[in-house]
Specification:
The chain is of the alpha/beta class and 424 residues long. It is 29% helix and 29% strand. α1 (13-24) runs parallel beside α7 (318-333) and α3 (48-65) packs parallel to α5 (180-192).
């Protein structure tokens, strides 16, 4: 059995920077990653970088080849190829940066607990056992697959991961789920020239946003030809000779509908990836949402076992995974003052067109908490430059305290945001 100061299960953002940090401090580190296509984690392989790469390519395609499907389909195929080269480069770079360190060993296999200190790693040529003084779980998240009749049998159903590997542009893409992932893909594929239909099960579009912001986004998407159906519950999927048919019902009155398309993207969220870890063998517990339960310092109920990134639940952002690393570093080597409660407010951005970004309280949240506020709005058209760029959609909205004049929250639904901030 091989002995290590630290075992890190998962090669994501938090895991890789923690491995480098511990290595610099002379720790002997093992990092276990189940797939050679995931060195570096979700961001460079299946999330942030590949999607933003294609989003940029979609904007270029829309600018030059709008309403010419054959040219946009060719552009899309080339864009996927360029994306694949980029992710391959980043994956190899992430691997080499850790692999070249003399006190870091990378195991490409599936890790699972045998006990609180021992990990079994299933490798292509057999299994080995590793023992670690500190163990860090960084396995990320995986797409949620809803229970829809025929979904497993269909060859036209994709997740946000598998859709990125398809180099044939769908003429009609059906998206099940109106969350941020679904909206990004909708905006991207509409930019490439696909007809896009979004089926959202809830009765509100973007329920976590203020209604004026949500309505602004909805208006822009519909201008791009994106159809949005609320209260839509997917019932069944079956492939046809020339595509796929999805049957859904309106949950408000039970009316059935069907829609034909070329591909279906399932974008109903992601869940912590804990399958196969055998957490019970270590005494590690999960919460009601299936996430690994941790305290504010990211320790599990087993003090030397930690969890970081998406697998512990909460907002799924790469920069939060990076901050999880900072918290753990502070707990191991610092003054132990950092925890998950001192990083609010958490900003986020949705890379639709135009992009949506937010930080702090929304207007609805501020009013619910009883704050006395004033709301400042600035439409994109207030900036002349937006007209010269022909980017006139969007709004900047700030929530300001009447008590001290401080900005309590800000939402930006516009592309030329720097110009708008200068205008304020």
């Amino acid at each position: 059995m091989k002995q290590y100061d630290a075992i890190i299960i998962g090669f994501g953002k938090a895991g890789k920077v923690l491995a480098a940090e511990l290595s610099n401090r002379g720790w002997k580190v093992a990092i276990v990653e189940r797939s050679k296509t995931m060195y570096g984690g979700s961001c460079p392989n299946i999330a942030c970088i590949p999607t933003k790469t294609l989003i940029h390519e979609a904007e270029v395609s829309s600018l030059f080849f709008r309403e010419d499907y054959s040219k946009q389909a060719n552009m899309y195929k080339q864009a996927v190829s360029r994306k694949n080269k980029l992710t391959s480069f980043l994956r190899e770079s992430n691997y080499e940066k850790l692999n070249k360190r003399p006190n870091v060993t990378i195991y490409t296999g599936t890790g699972s607990f045998i006990s609180a200190n021992t990990i079994k790693v299933a490798l292509p040529d057999g299994a080995i056992e590793l023992q670690g003084k500190e163990i860090f779980i960084n396995t990320g998240s995986t797409p949620i697959i809803p229970a829809i009749d025929g979904i497993k049998q269909s060859k036209k159903v994709y997740t946000s991961v598998t859709m990125l590997e398809v180099d044939l542009l769908p003429k009609h893409l059906i998206i099940v789920g109106g969350g941020y992932i679904g909206l990004e893909f909708a905006s991207m594929y509409a930019g490439f020239g696909s007809k896009v239909t979004i089926l959202e099960g809830g009765n509100k579009f973007m329920p976590n946003e203020d209604r004026d912001i949500a309505n602004s986004v909805k208006d822009v998407m519909e201008k791009k030809g994106i159809e949005i159906h609320l209260n839509a519950r997917a019932q069944s999927i079956h492939d046809t000779n020339d595509g796929v048919t999805l049957t859904y019902s309106d949950v408000s009155d039970g009316t059935p509908y069907y829609i034909d398309g070329d591909a279906i993207l399932i974008a109903t969220g992601r869940k912590p990836m804990i399958e196969g870890l055998n957490l019970s063998a270590a005494g590690v517990t999960v919460n009601a949402h299936g996430a690994i339960a941790v305290n504010d310092q990211l320790r599990t109920v087993v003090p030397h076992v930690w969890a970081m990134g998406d697998v512990k639940g909460g907002p799924q952002f790469t920069y939060l995974s990076l901050d999880d690393f900072r918290i753990i570093r502070d707990q191991l080597f610092g003054d132990k003052k950092r925890d998950i409660n001192d990083r609010d407010p958490i900003p986020y951005a949705v890379f639709i067109d135009p992009p949506l970004a937010h930080i702090g309280l929304t207007e609805e949240e501020a009013l619910k908490r009883g704050y006395s506020i004033k709301v400042s709005r600035l439409p994109a058209t207030a900036v002349v430059r937006s007209r010269t760029l022909q980017q006139m959609d969007g709004i900047l909205k700030a929530i300001v305290s009447n008590q001290n004049g401080k900005i309590m929250g800000c939402t930006l639904d516009v592309r030329c945001f720097v110009l708008m901030l200068r205008k304020l």
